Amino acid sequence: MVLREAGNGQYEIYNLGNNSILAAYWLGQVGTDWAFVTLGGFSGSDTSDMMLRNSTTGVFQVYDISNNNITSSAALGTVGLNWQVSGFGNFSSLGETDMILRNSASGGFQVYDIKNNQITASAFMGAVGLNWQVGGFGNFNSADSSGMILRDANTGGLQVYDISNNQFINSASMGAVGLDWRIEGFGDFSSRPGETDMLMRNVNSGELLLYDIANNQITGANFLGPVGLDWQFAGVAPIQAPGTSDLVLRNVSTGQFQVYNIADNQITGSASLGQVGLDWQLGGFAPATSTDNPAAVSQLVQAMAGFGGNSGAADGLNSTPLAVETSQQTLLTTPQHA
After folding, report:
1. Do residues 273 and 285 touch, judged by C-beta distance below 8 A?
2. In angstroms, rounded to a whole number, what is the distance separating the alpha carbons of residues 194 and 325?
3. Residue 289: what pLDDT?
4. What structural domains does the chain harbor?
5. Considering the entire predicted model, what is its pTM?
6. What is the pLDDT of residue 313?
7. Per the count of CB atoms within 10 A, which of 14, 17, 41, 334 is most buried?
8. How far is Cα 73 from Cα 70, in angstroms, rounded to an integer?
């Protein structure tokens, strides 16, 4: 888990396992104009890397992290700020962690293949009306590929798009859910290997509801129960053990983190991860590091909790300050489709 101090841009990393914080380390400091994007495997090695984006210029920067230290840094380039990050997955069908951006004016989707901390290819995927908002990414077609779920902001309708070789290859309606139910995250909550299931929450009652998804269809629904609305979604990540899909919530009043273990569509355990000052914002959780595992890339977007949560103090100064070098590589070409 990576946290950032809102006032000075200091980053800290917390190692998690067995439903507890095992250790904490200082990663370094970077200007507050650099916003956290995600944690994932972009270097081609079996590590978790951190991606930041400059909120003024649109430049993307990747930091390789190994043994709780920044080991290298590379600029991916820049894309206009009208192109916003939608999510990550194995869209190229090459076992990589690729990135999809969406144009905030046109609804167009652009995919960028990433390997060895470089953009290796880019493709325009088409446009979808802006009333359709990105819900998340995962293996919804039961074919070990990355798909995308969109939701109609007017009707609550759910639409899944299968993605292969950087193209939409199929689309299917999954039905509609009332707009008082908000998509929270995705993971293998049913304990069926290869599935990516959807977690929703009622914005009025705090009720949590799981939907099993297979072959691009909702195959089951299970209530987990309500949680107070002062507890907000932080992420889905393997907190208990590798391969698990555990739900992490954070109390917006106290900064406390709580993990809920989920298996067979039931909460099987719960534990406090501790309390961190609200001036510390949650960046995200590192997913499984092997991109050869479909669950790794499908879980990646669930680690993107975006700054707006909060978090806390760590100990141990194990890294030099981050160095952002935007001139290291050629800048990306802005997508040609407006």
Report:
1. no
2. 39
3. 54
4. 2-303 (2.120.10.30)
5. 0.85
6. 27
7. 41
8. 8
